[in-house]
Design a protein that fits this description.
By secondary structure, the chain is α/β, with parallel strands linked by helices. The protein has two domains: 2-172 and 214-240 and 284-300, NAD(P)-binding Rossmann-like Domain (Rossmann fold, 3-Layer(aba) Sandwich); 182-209 and 243-281 and 312-319, no CATH class. The chain has helices at residues 11-22, 55-64, 78-83, 85-106, 117-121, 139-158, 182-192, 216-225, 245-258, 288-294, 302-319; strands at 2-6, 26-31, 46-49, 68-71, 110-116, 161-167, 169-171, 199-201, 210-211, 213-215, 233-237, 243-244, 272-274, 282-283. The strands form four sheets. A seven-stranded parallel sheet has the order 3-2-1-4-5-6-11, with helices on both faces. The chain has a three-stranded mixed sheet with strand order 12-9-14. Strand 1, helix 1 and strand 2 form a beta-alpha-beta unit. Helix 2 runs parallel beside helix 4 (85-106) and helix 9 (245-258) crosses helix 11 (302-319). It is globular, with a radius of gyration of 19 Å. 47% of the residues are buried. Bound molecules: nicotinamide-adenine-dinucleotide. Nicotinamide-adenine-dinucleotide is lined by residues 7, 9-13, 31-36, 51-53, 72-76, 91, 95, 114, 116, 167, 169-170, 176, 179-181.
């Protein structure tokens, strides 16, 4: 089928576009390259350097009439959204609206939307199911939640099929340090550069914040399954496993040692720093519904995912490509 992937030069979107190409689909990638890298775009995908808020994007959708639009383009930084909520909403709300209007006009069958569990549920005590009431605590969380609500409205009003995927903290090759699971890229970059990173913590969570780290390939599988299933659903894409920043760091150190990489002095006792304002203490999502509806499974352990992320970084550091 013909699929248009927005944000397809970015971290997650490029892996999704790759998988669609490899599955035999005709893939169009739209990205304004504000955060993405054209080297991430599969050579067999058609690339359009376009902004989703631009009328030219709507024209492209009308001209190409894809069967599915997979929507990953977004303003992804929580701190930026706090600094400039208007710009965040312009991309994440108005950009998504433009996409939905274009989709209806072009007769697109389905929209798959990359949303965020972490930001939408806010601080939570235990792994949360999708029914948990939203508690958006940043303009980014508000704009993604608003995007979800518009998608539902378009679904109900115009019969546009959709699946909303609420990701936990996604990590893996091609990750940028400033996204939601940027800590993996930050730790890896620091340790490979011979520096020991700081672990941010609250007084009552001395081993850092609790998160749910899901490997990008597992996220890609959910996007493949959503092509033919999960219509009308909002689904957590997560492991359900609680991992502290400290545990993440120690697992990474173990993986680096196993791969024979020498670590800087003090790597076993990283300094602690105070959590930054707004850092959620705990964000872990229950993936039971995605298991049931999509028959999706988070297959990659944290250790294996970190090992694969590292080997990608090593190959690309050597060859100088992204
Ligand atoms: N990384 C995570 O852990 C995580 C968690 C939850 C949700 N998400 C969501 O997944 C999606 C992808 O995130 P990512 O981590 O891969 O980030 P990313 O920055 O690598 O990807 C976003 C892409 O969108 C492009 N883009 C931004 N604004 C655009 C615009 N106006 N027009 C066209 N293209 C534009 C960027 O150039 C970039 O390539 C986002 O929607 C994000 O909200 C990510």
């Amino acid at each position: 089928m013909k699929i248009l992937v927005t944000g397809g030069a970015g971290f997650i979107g490029s892996h999704v576009a790759d998988a669609y190409v490899e599955a035999g689909h005709e893939v169009l990638v739209v990205d304004n390259l504000s955060g993405g890298d054209p080297r991430n775009v599969h050579p067999r995908a058609r690339f359009f350097k376009l902004d989703i808020t631009d009328p030219a994007f709507e024209e492209l959708v009308l001209l190409e009439r894809p069967e599915v639009i997979n929507h990953h383009a977004a303003q992804i930084s929580v701190p930026f959204s706090v600094e400039d909520p208007h710009e965040d909403a312009r991309v994440n709300v108005l950009g998504t609206l433009r996409l939905l209007q274009a989709a209806v006009r072009a007769g697109v069958r389905k929209v798959i939307f990359a949303s965020t569990g972490g930001a939408i549920y806010g601080d939570v005590e235990a792994p949360v199911p999708e029914e948990h009431p939203p508690n958006p605590q940043s303009p980014y969380a508000l704009s993604k939640l608003t995007g979800e609500m518009y998608i539902r409205w378009f679904g109900e009003t115009h019969g546009l099929a959709f699946t909303i995927l609420r990701y936990a903290n996604v990590y893996g090759p091609r990750q940028v340090p400033h996204g939601e699971a940027g800590v993996v890229a930050i730790f890896l970059e620091a340790l490979l550069a011979g520096k020991v990173p700081t672990i941010y913590a609250y007084p009552d969570t001395p081993d850092g914040m609790f998160r749910d780290y899901v490997f990008v390939e597992d996220v890609v599988n959910a996007n493949l399954l959503a092509l033919s299933g999960g219509d009308g659903e909002t689904l957590n894409i997560a492991t359900g496993r609680t991992v502290s920043t400290g545990e993440l760091y120690r697992t990474l150190v173990t993986v680096l040692r196993e791969e024979g990489i020498s670590l800087p002095e003090g790597a076993d006792s990283p300094p602690r720093g105070p959590a930054r304002p707004g850092d959620l203490k705990r964000s872990v999502l229950l993936p039971a519904r995605a298991r049931k509806v999509l028959r999706w499974e988070p297959r990659t352990s944290l250790r294996e995912g970190l090992r694969r992320t590292l080997s990608h970084v090593q190959v690309h550091h050597r060859s100088g490509t992204g």
